[in-house]
Amino acid sequence: MSSTCLKLVEVEESRRFMIDCFKAVNVPEEHAKAQADLLVAADHRGHFSHGMNRLEMYINDLAINSTDGAITPVVLKETPATAWVDGRNGLGAVVGNFCMDLAIKKAKNVGVGWVCAKGSNHYGMAGWYALRAMESGLVGMSMTNTSPLMAPTGAKEAALGTNPLSLGANACGKDHFLLDMATTAVAVGKIEIQNRKGASLPDGWAQDPEGKVTNDAKLAFETGCLCPLGGTELTSGYKGYGLGAMVDILTGVMSGANYSTHVRKWTHTGANTAANLGQVFIAVDPNCFAPQFQERMTDFNSILRNTKPTDPKKPVLLAGDKEEKNMKDVDQTGGIEYLENQLKTCAALAERLKIQPLRFK
Amino acid sequence: MSSTCLKLVEVEESRRFMIDCFKAVNVPEEHAKAQADLLVAADHRGHFSHGMNRLEMYINDLAINSTDGAITPVVLKETPATAWVDGRNGLGAVVGNFCMDLAIKKAKNVGVGWVCAKGSNHYGMAGWYALRAMESGLVGMSMTNTSPLMAPTGAKEAALGTNPLSLGANACGKDHFLLDMATTAVAVGKIEIQNRKGASLPDGWAQDPEGKVTNDAKLAFETGCLCPLGGTELTSGYKGYGLGAMVDILTGVMSGANYSTHVRKWTHTGANTAANLGQVFIAVDPNCFAPQFQERMTDFNSILRNTKPTDPKKPVLLAGDKEEKNMKDVDQTGGIEYLENQLKTCAALAERLKIQPLRFK
C-alpha cells in the first residue's frame, strides 16, 4: 500500500466527525459520543475494520430505524453477581457500556459480575469492554454473537458468526494483556483484501460452495463460508467451531437473543429487521484470589515476550502489543492514517447528512 | 489398528483396578474412588489419553510423594461468588471436585460461582468438571494450566502448556453441548502416534528446534514444541497462542500457582517437585437470564447438527457428540477396549503394587 493513498486525520477530528454523523440521524449527544469513542479507539489501535469503516453501516441502520439510537437498556432480572439486560435495540456501545459498568459494580461487591444482554446491535471491538473493566482494576471479558459466516466442521453452509471473544488483564504500570479475537480463522475483511489484490488464499481460511477449502479469494468472498480457527478437521478446525458455538451459547442462547442462523445477515445498506444480538460482559476482581496479581502478570508478560524468537529481528509479541504500538505511532505522527477510499465515503456521508466534512492533512 | 490388539475390560472392572492401584500407594478410599471415576469416565468417553493411560504417571507421583493422595483442599478466601482454594498438592480429581462443588453452591446462591485453585495436580479431562455443574442444571466451565509444550507465535521454545478449556450446557432430555479442548493445534499424543506409525505430520501441528513448522514426527516429538490452535501466523496461530495465555492467566497467574515456564515438566517416572498447577472452575445458573435456556439449547444443537454436510454420509457433529457415541458403544459391547500395550502396563502395575490384576475378555 503506497503512502500516497493515506491521509492523516487528527484523533479528535475523527471523533468530532463521527459524533456529528450520529447526531444527524437523531442520536442524542451522549450516545453519539459513546459510539464514536468506541469507533475511534478501534482506528487508534489499528483495528480499521471496526472503526470509521463501519460508520456508514451504523448510520444506515439508524436512518431506517432498524437501530434505535435514543434508547437506553433496562435490567430485566438480577442477582448480586448477575444481570439479564434488554438492550431494546439500542446502539452497541450504549448497551455494551451499560452492561460492563453493571458487571464492574457487581464484581466490586461480590467478586464477579456476569451480565448478559439481548436486543443488542453490533458492539464494535470486543476488547473495548475488557479495557473498561481493566480501568477499574478488574479482569474483563466480553463476547458477542454475529451474523452467520462460519461453516461448522464438515458443513457446506454457515451457521455461526465470527463470534469474537476478548479477555484483558492489567500488569504493573500501563502494561497489560489484551486478547481480542474472532473464532474464525480470519475476518471476512482479509478475504476481501486478497480478492482486491487478485491474490490467492492460504489453505484453511475459507470454503467454496461445496464445502471444500478454496484458495480462490473471489469465490470465497462470494460464498461467505469462513473456516473456524484451526482450519480443516485435520488441523483441529472443530476446536474453533466449538469456540464459536461456546460464544453463541454464552451470548445469544443464554440471553434469549437471536443465535446461530436466526441472526440476520448484516448488509451494507442497512437491514429492515432488528439485529437482536446477544452479548456477555464479565468482570472479575483478581483481589478475590492470590494477592499481587499485577506483579505476576508483569512476570508472565515478560516470560512470553522474552521467549527465544525464531527470527532474531522479530521479538515475540503478546496479545495487545501490536495495538499499543499502533496507538504510539498515531500519537507520534499526529493522527490516524485513513485510506483515500475511506475519506471518499466520509465526504459522501457529510454531504448526505449535511454536516461539516472531515478535515485531513 | 487391528482388532486383535484390543481387549475388552468391563467399566466396573477398570474402575476397581484403578481404585486398588491408588489404595496401594496409600490413597484413602474416597479419594481413590474420585480419581478412578474421573479416569474411567475418560476411557468410557473415548478420551484414552486421559484415562488408564495416565494411571502409571499418577501412581509414580504418589509413590514418591510428589502428590499427596490423602490431603483435602482448603478455602483461603471467599466472597458470595468467588473462592480461592489451596489444593495442598492433593490429587487433581479431589481438588477439582471440591472446587466445582463450591462453585455450584455459589452459583445456586448468587448466579455465578468462580473458584480458583493453586497447589493442584493434573486434573484429568477438563470436561469432567463442566459435566459436574451440568448435573446440577448449571452451565459449567473449567480450565487448567499444564507443563510447557506450546511455542508462542514467532518463538522457538515452549512457554505455555496445552492449557485446555471446557464448557458444557444442558439441552432438553439428556442432550447437551460439551466442549473440551486443548488450546494447542493437537495433543502431543497425536504426534507420538504418527511417529510410531512412521507417518509424517500435516503442516501446523508442531515445530522443529529452529522454530520452523516440521512434518517430521520423530523430530517434532523430540523437540516438544507444539503449534497453538491455528498453526502458523498465516493461519492465525497467534489466536491459539492468545487462548493458551488466557487460560494460564485465569488459572496459574490468578491463583498464585506456577504458570508459563515456572510449571515443571511432567515426566513418566514422576517428578521430584510439586506441580503446583492452577485451575479455575466456573458455574453459571442459566435461570438468572432468559427463561427456557434448555429449550433454546435443543434448537441450537439441532440447527448445527442439521447444517448441510459436505459429505452426505457424514452428518455435522456437535462438541460432545463423539463422546456420547463412544459411551453407547462401550455399553453395547460390554466394556472398554484397551490396547494390549496398555494391559501390559496394568499387569506390571498389579505385580509391583501387589494387587489383583486387571481382568479382561
TrEMBL record, chains A, B:
GO MF terms held by the record: oxidoreductase activity
Keyword Transferase listed: no
Domain of life: Eukaryota
Cross-referenced InterPro entries: Mal/L-sulf/L-lact_DH-like_ah, Mal/L-sulf/L-lact_DH-like_NADP, Mal/L-sulfo/L-lacto_DH-like_sf, Malate/L-lactate_DH-like
Gene3D superfamilies in the cross-refs: 1.10.1530.10, Hypothetical oxidoreductase yiak, domain 2
Keyword Coiled coil: no
A Pfam family that the UniProt record links to this protein: Ldh_2
Keywords: Oxidoreductase
Stated family: Belongs to the LDH2/MDH2 oxidoreductase family.
Protein name as annotated: Uncharacterized protein LOC111594362 isoform X3
Gene assigned in the entry: LOC111594362
